[in-house]
Specification:
alpha/beta; Spore Coat Polysaccharide Biosynthesis Protein SpsA, Chain A; Jelly Rolls; five-stranded mixed barrel
Length: 497
């Protein structure tokens, strides 16, 4: 490898916004794909992206573009890493998704403001499984050198099948990197969106096509110049959003994008807005192993199989079955006399799909949204900045929850108009505010919170606080809340509870 490739440090930008609708019911709007544990290390996709970023750029800040609702959960994922330097993680928080054009434009403005026009950005989506770290480092060094010369770099994956679910990159002229051994880049001649099977087969036979991995490398100045020229509406609206956002009061490690200005940015992918039109795009063929964790079929390939081709996670029994993938939480599943199925069982939903139709799971989520069914958005377990809660049972005028509060976690000071709550401490130490009283409860102690009474639950111990909550009343919706104080600065309309 040329010494020149070491002189271009990169600034990682992680895109963590994919809803993962094809991975329902494990991936939901409130707990999407980046937080799913995947692979042999059983780390979430976001954690793995952070690990790659930290190794690639040990001295650089790491930017994350994500939804503002995922900020606290993302911080929790970072804290699970070995000795994380929390000060190097910076968050760019979107009020909602506007595709990769808006995300990358605003990330480039943030990187330029902090690091300058010549800073090399490495864009890493948090929905890919990448292994072989050494090969990744070599490919990124090659891409960074090209980016420093003004190129817009996309990483390409050599196809091993005529896949129709990926975009393709067509290339021709080789651009060898001096002294870099096998490292090469190629001039891109065209981008081909998801092709038909016949087209994909033709691409595979011709040989000069790669899958578009969705990983990019360019300087902040180069991508902003390309946006200004090729997608001026995205560029102008992103600049207005940036000006309206970063000048307001912000925490040191995060910027909340102004919702009104953000929603004026066209919801267009960076591929369509820039990469398909620019003349200075090159592709670096990846030498690292890569898998797009886009559907259950892809997840199933990561799990070891028995002699009949069955793979499972959880308590699963196969009888006269073959080529199935079954994943179950908290329930035993027996698959008898079936083949080529994907079965995913969670506390509140069950998915049964033919293996070849796993891409169609997205249609299930769309149908649930159309029916306003809550299971497209949230499961029985909901994640909050202070911890999580799981609905154990509910019926007419009652609901039972298991609440877990992290050490130092604190629910908002609140009251409910239509429900009363009975709290029983199972483990840990709880500080309770009830009306004008403040007291501490330990295991096997309980208290009753009548409707209309201000209350707050806090964990003042060193371990998780576990509480069983029994709600009773005429209305038990999560939006029955009046919030008086919240250490997480949440908006009750956006994030009740």
């Amino acid at each position: 490898m040329s010494k020149d490739t070491h002189t271009h440090p990169v600034i990682p930008v992680i895109l963590s916004g994919g809803a993962g609708t094809r991975l329902w019911p494990l991936s939901r709007q409130s707990h999407p794909k980046p937080f799913m544990p995947v692979g042999a290390r059983d780390e979430s996709l976001l954690q793995q992206a952070y690990c790659h970023a930290a190794q690639l750029a040990p001295d650089a800040p790491i930017f994350t573009v994500t939804n503002r609702d995922y900020y606290f959960k993302s911080i929790d994922e970072i804290k699970k890493l070995d000795h994380p330097d929390l000060e190097k993680f910076k968050f760019l928080l979107e009020p909602n998704g506007r595709n990769t054009g808006a995300a990358i434009a605003l990330a480039a403005l943030a990187v330029r403001a902090e690091q300058g026009d010549d800073a090399v950005m490495l864009v890493l989506p948090a929905d890919h499984l990448i292994e072989d770290t050494a090969a990744l480092h070599a490919d990124v060094a090659c891409a960074a050198a090209l980016a420093a010369q003004g190129h817009l770099v996309v990483f390409g994956i050599r196809p091993d099948s005529p896949a129709t679910g990926y975009g393709y990159v067509e290339y021709d002229q080789a651009m060898p990197m001096a002294g870099s051994g096998e490292q090469h880049a190629f001039a891109v001649t065209a981008f081909k969106e998801k092709p038909s099977l016949a087209q994909a087969t033709d691409f595979l036979e011709k040989g000069h096509y790669l899958w578009n991995a969705g990983l990019f490398c360019f300087t902040a100045g180069s991508i902003l110049l390309a946006l200004e020229k090729l997608a001026p509406e995205i560029y102008q609206q992103a600049c207005r959003c940036w000006d309206a956002s970063h000048t307001s009061a912000q925490q040191a490690n995060k910027i909340n994008f102004d919702a009104q200005h953000f929603n004026n940015i066209p919801a267009t992918s960076i591929d369509y807005a820039v990469m398909e039109k620019a003349e200075n795009v090159v592709v670096v063929p990846a030498h690292f192993s890569w898998q797009d964790i886009g559907c259950w079929q892809a997840v199933s390939r990561l799990t070891s199989q028995d002699d009949a081709g069955n793979a499972s996670q959880g308590d699963v029994l196969f009888v006269d079955a073959k080529n199935n993938y079954v994943r179950s939480k908290n329930k035993m599943v027996a698959a008898v006399g079936v083949e080529d199925l994907i079965i995913v069982n969670t506390d509140d939903a069950l998915l049964v799909s033919h293996r070849d139709q796993s891409q169609q799971v997205k249609q299930v989520v769309e149908a649930l949204k159309a029916k306003n069914h809550p299971s497209h958005q949230i499961g029985n377990t909901a994640y909050r900045p202070w911890g999580e809660y799981t609905v154990l049972e509910q019926g007419c005028h009652f609901k039972i929850k298991r609440i877990v509060v992290k050490p130092g976690g604190r629910l908002s000071l609140q009251k409910h108009q239509h429900r009363s709550e009975h709290w029983v401490v199972i483990a840990g130490q709880a500080e309770v505010i009830k009306g004008k009283e403040t007291f501490v409860m330990g295991p096997e102690e309980s208290t009753f919170i009548p409707a209309g009474s201000q209350h707050r639950l806090s964990n003042v111990g060193q371990h998780d606080l576990i509480v069983i909550e029994v709600q009773t009343g005429s209305y038990l919706g999560e939006d029955d809340i009046v919030r008086f104080d919240d250490i997480y600065s949440r908006n009750v309309e956006l994030d009740p509870v």
